[in-house]
Amino acid sequence: MLLPFFVGAVLLVVLPMFLTVGLAFTDYDALSLPSWRGVQNFVDIMRRDLFQIAVRNSLIYVGLAVPLRLLGALALALFLNGRRRGLYLYRTAVYLPTVIPTIAYALIWLWIYNPIYGPLNHLLGALGLPEPLWLVNSQTALLSIVLMATFQIGEGFVILLAGLQDVPHDYYDAAAVDGGGQWTMFRHITLPLLMPWLVLLTIRDLIASAQQSFAPAYLMTGGGPYYATLFLPLLVFEEAFDRFRFGHASAMMVVMFIGMGLLLYLLYRTVGGWGYADDV
Amino acid sequence: MPMTFKGKLHWWYLWRYLFPTLLYHGAALVVTGIFVLPLVWMLANSLRQPGLPPPLTVEWWPTPLAWANYWEIFQIVPLAGYIRSSVWVGVWGVVITGVTASWTGFAMAQLPPASRRWLVSLAVLLMMAPSSALWLARFVIFKQLGLLDSYGALIAPSIMGTSASFVLLFYWTFRRVPLELFESARLDGAGAFHSWWALGLPLARPTLVAVGVLTFMHYWSDFIDPLLYLKSESRYTLAIGLRILQQLDLTNWPLLMAGAAVMTMPVVVSYLFVQRFAWMEGRLAGLVR
Questions:
Q1: Would the CB atoms of A107 and B259 count as touching at under 8 Å?
Q2: CB neighbours of B245 closer than 8 A, spacing ≥ 6?
Q3: Distance of residue A203 Cα from the nearest chain B Cα, in angstroms
Q4: CATH number of this structure's domain A49-271
Q5: pLDDT single digits (tens) A39-72
Q6: Cα–Cα distances in Å, from B135 out to A114, A209, B84, B129, B141?
Q7: I need a labelling partner for B280 at 20 to 30 A (CA). Which of A96, A119, B96, B207 fits?
Q8: Could you tell me the residue ranges of all domains in chain A?
């Protein structure tokens, strides 16, 4: 009964992982047999300007999108926590953008961001606010892609909501007796108890951002303008499936995951563990 | 019940209860309204008469309503064929996932605690594996297996229950069933597969339905797999179909939005239908996609 699961896991996850690492040291075009190249692929990609641009863009994306999405989910969870009437409807609405299929979401935002006809700039104009060029301007294109990602936070929102509801009520009562204000309660009760969830979400968002940035860049900007939204997954995709340089693409992939590992390690050191602090 | 004092609203009721409540709901409506806005704009624009000059102010409700847009997109691209492909992939995905995920969850629930814990961590690790890391190597593997450009490549993840979160959903469902039930079935001579079919599945019916719907949503929405593994136009799924529509006519926004609506609305409706389970799964997948 467990057989299909194990076969699938080995064939579709474990084997591909090792294969990617293996291919990173070879020259392979998906037609002829791979030939060994040693670390030459890594030397080559490091010298490519586009690779450096993609690394920088991906780092900026992660640096902006991960904290923004986390804060957004946390703020919404705190706001929509409780037992009021109608909360269920609000929560449903917050989750909605998360279920929209990738390509439809990209097309909708392409329309929303249209600088001349799009509804967003009409709305901003009506409110007397500046109307940026969004995806068309290389200064704002990356930010626009980050912004649209901050609306697909339903999963994080639900996780934190559940985390909030698990906080025992006695804690707040006790704090109220001791004369703790709203901020003190949040700082010393809510936040420490939510910490494991927050750390978990950060880890998962770090990992997810690897593919999150692909679809919007591929569908909406093609990596432009002037490579402003060229992220690593897009470059890997083009390298492998447009130019059939699987060796180079795999090497980029490996660098990407080493980088991700380093970021996770950094997170581990900063938080000091995985968030299970004892000083609750 | 408003608190009244001799027929009049008491001032402190207004101050302490009514104003804060109104303020809260006002703020909540604004905030959550923003999250619904993309869908509203998609629908509003999809009903706009094509060929009219584009709007110059925010248009909440176009006049006249051009329902013909939804007919039109089926003429420009073979949308019906794309939908058929998507449904085909989705149905097979659901059927296989229903079997494999429930098998795995069923077996896990009956293992000794140590192996259980080990399997749960394995499932969590599998969900953590970033899918982009697998693109290239899966392409190579599918090529070797002769699965490229076939629905097989798209359905392949269903062997392992599509997502480890579905396996865990079944595992949690079966864990709530007292072990003695399956134990006594075994003593009565029922094999593992028989007790899965006759005892397990009927008990897990709500989970089965929810996982089925979520699985269908997954395959229906999937853009990257068909992009990577399909070549023949006759096999394209709806996600790729929308991409083609976009490439054909980038500036005809009403038609593009109609296409997006055709793809989005079934997912939104099914989401509302299985919301509680979607949240549970979201909680899992969220932790660990």
A1: yes
A2: B73, B76, B77, B79, B255, B256, B259
A3: 8
A4: 1.10.3720.10
A5: 788 888 888 888 899 999 999 999 999 999 999 9
A6: 31, 15, 25, 12, 10
A7: B96
A8: 49-271
